[in-house]
Amino acid sequence: MNEQLLAARGLHVEYGLPGGRTAQAVCGVDIDVAPGEIVALAGESGCGKTTLARTLLGLERPTKGTVTMAGRPLGATNRELREFRRRAQLVLQDPTGALNPRHTVYEAIAEGLRIHGLHDNEHERVAQALAHVGLRPPERYLLSYPHELSGGQRQRVVIAGCLVLDPEIIIADEPVASLDASVRGEVLALLMRLRDDFGLGALVVTHDLGLAWSIADRIAVMYLGRIVEQGPVEQILTAPQHPYTSALVSVLPNSPVGEPQVLVGEAPDATRIPGGCRFSPRCPVLASGAADTAGIGAACRTIDLPILTRTDDDVAKVACHYAHATVHS
C-alpha cells in the first residue's frame, strides 16, 4: 500500500528524570497505517507501546521525528490538533474509566460533537453511531448511565463516541483487556466490521499475540522502545525471525515454533539501553553460543541495528544480526 493514512518516521520520545537521567521510551520508530488496514502493535508491558500510541495522537510531543496524517505533518496549535483528533480517535483500555458516570450514553457520545462544534443533526448522529456499534434500537440506550450497562456495552459506547465524529483512523489501546472472555470476540468482530464497512484504519496496541493474529493485517513487534520485527501478521506469527518474537509466539496454543521459550530476566531499564542489539542481554541465540558460531556474536553485543521501515512489497522485516546472517549464509 503506497497511500499511508497515519505515519511516523524516526520517532523518539525521551523523558528527563531526577539525577540527570533520561528515559528513552521510544528510540527511533517508523510505523504507518493505511486506510482500511488494521495494524497490531505488540510487545510486553513497558516496551513503549502506549507512549508511541499517545505520540501518534499528539498527546505526547516527540523529542525527535515526525508524525504525519495523509502526508501532512501533525500541527502544534490547538486548532490543528483539534482537527487532527477528530480524524484520529482513541479507544481506551478501560471503558468504565473512559465514561463519566454522571453522563448518560447520549451525553457521552454527543460530547465529541459539541467539542468540535458539530451541532447539526446531533440526535440523529448519536443514534446512528449507536446502531453502527450494534446497540439497537438506539433509543433503548440513549438515557442509560454507564453503571446500567455491561462491560461489552460500555466499550461499544466508547467506540460509538469515536465513530460519531466520522474518523479515518482509530487507535485502540488494549481494547478488550478489561472485558470478559465471552465478550472480547464480539468487540474484536466489531472493529473488523468497522474496518470493512467504513474503510477505517486501526492501530491496535496489545500484548496478546492471539488477538493480533485474529484481527490484524500487519503486526509490529516492539521491544525496549524499538520495533524489532514487522510485516504481514500471518508471516510474522507463523515464521518469526527475531528471537524475541519467537519467544512470544512460542507460548501461543498450537504454536508453530515448538516448545514454549522462557526468556531470562526482565527487560532492561529504559534509562540504560544496552549497547548493540537491545535484546542481547536476554537473547537465547546469543546465550546458547549460536550467534558466536555464526560469527556475529560481537556484532550483537556492539552494533546497533537500523530502524525498520515498511517496504512497498510488504515483506516482513527484522532487526536481528543473527536473522540477517542466517538468511544470507
From TrEMBL:
**Which Gene3D superfamilies does this chain map to?**
P-loop containing nucleotide triphosphate hydrolases
Q: Which PROSITE patterns match?
A: ABC_TRANSPORTER_1, ABC_TRANSPORTER_2
What InterPro entries does the database record attribute to this sequence?
AAA+_ATPase (IPR003593), ABC_transp_ATP-bind (IPR050319), ABC_transporter-like_ATP-bd (IPR003439), ABC_transporter-like_CS (IPR017871), Oligopep_ABC_C (IPR013563), P-loop_NTPase (IPR027417)
Would you say which domain of life the source belongs to? Bacteria
The record places domain ABC transporter at 8-249
Keywords of the record, alphabetical order, are: ATP-binding, Nucleotide-binding, Transport
Pfam entry (one): oligo_HPY
Query: Which processes are annotated in GO (biological process)?
Result: peptide transport; transmembrane transport
List the SUPFAM superfamilies hit by this protein, alphabetically. P-loop containing nucleoside triphosphate hydrolases (SSF52540)
Entry's Gene Ontology molecular function annotations: ATP binding; ATP hydrolysis activity
Q: Which residues cross the membrane?
A: none
Write the signal peptide boundaries: none
By sequence similarity, the record places it as follows: Belongs to the ABC transporter superfamily.
Q: What is the protein name for this chain?
A: ATP-binding cassette domain-containing protein
Q: Which organism does this record belong to?
A: Phytoactinopolyspora mesophila
Taxonomy of the source species:
Bacteria, Bacillati, Actinomycetota, Actinomycetes, Jiangellales
